[in-house]
Amino acid sequence: MIGLDEYGDGERYDQEYGAWEPDGPFYERLAHRYGGPVLELGCGTGRVALGLARQGFAVVGVEVAPAMLARARAKAGHFPVEWLEADCRVLGLGRRFCTVFMAANGFQHLVTAEDQIAAMEAVHRHLEPGGAFAFNARNPVTNEDARDVDEEYPWHSYRDGQGRAVRVSGYHRWSPETHTLVYTTIRRVGGAVDRRDLTLRFAPIPWLVASLRHVGFRAITVRAGFADEPFDEASSQDAVIVAEA
User: Tens of pLDDT along 1-56?
Assistant: First the structure.
């Protein structure tokens, strides 16, 4: 995992991204279908994990970035989520779960094929027979991010906790050889400029499916979004994958 300093401020993350993901209801349906306990890998500041805990599920949230985990703990209040700082590639909790997931393209933070396979193996070790692992991923064949954008362009803007205007922009560089994309994020607050890189891996969707089968997953479904849209590798921008142990 490269560039995790982008996740060094949990409050800033929530201000920028905390509400935009449309995936919460999907993971709720998944948990109701396969049951608890539930394990979220890369839980960030707890957006999805807390939603499931509020519905009565026993939830463990695993996160490698300490600042994100601290923010999740602060937001949880009295909800009994178990928060753990750990690396999903070498996870060894000594227990099993019925539902495991990685939200918000978290799986793509694993930037090599070896990293992604190691995470799949770790998940498989932690799943009850018949349990499910779900995650979403961009499709490198069609996704508009899978290309070079050398000129800085605006992403969005907001006001931080101190009321200051924050302008976020950036550019990105694509490597078709490694299926990796390096995002350079630039934040401007007053006269200050903060620049950070983040690397993601857009693995081919057929490779992801084949790798899941290789490590022992059986029934695998691929859809194009969280509303169960059919997936077409030639036209779908994104994939939502559910693999049963």
Answer: 666 788 999 999 998 887 656 799 999 999 999 999 999 999 999 999 999 999 99
For the sheet with 59-63, list strands across it. Answer: 82-85, 59-63, 38-41, 97-102, 127-138, 238-244, 220-223
User: Residue with structure tokens 């049951």?
Assistant: 35
Low-confidence ranges of the chain (pLDDT < 50): none
Question: Could you state, in order of their start, the residue ranges of all structural domains in the chain?
Answer: 4-139+204-244, 149-200
β 82-85/97-102 pair status: unpaired
Structure tokens at 22: 């449309």
**Residue 142 has which token pair?**
């069609």
Check: CB of residue 245 under 8 Å from CB of residue 133.
yes
pLDDT for res 5: 83
Longest dimension (CA), the chain: 55
Close Cβ partners of 55 (under 8 Å, ≥ 6 residues apart): 28, 31
CATH topology of domain 4-139+204-244: Rossmann fold (3.40.50)
| Helix-, strand-, coil-residue percentages of the chain, each rounded to 5 | 30, 35, 35
CA distance 98 to 128: 5
Length of the chain: 245
Query: What architecture does CATH give domain 149-200?
Result: Single Sheet (2.20)
- Residue 219 backbone dihedrals phi, psi, to 5 degrees: -70, 120
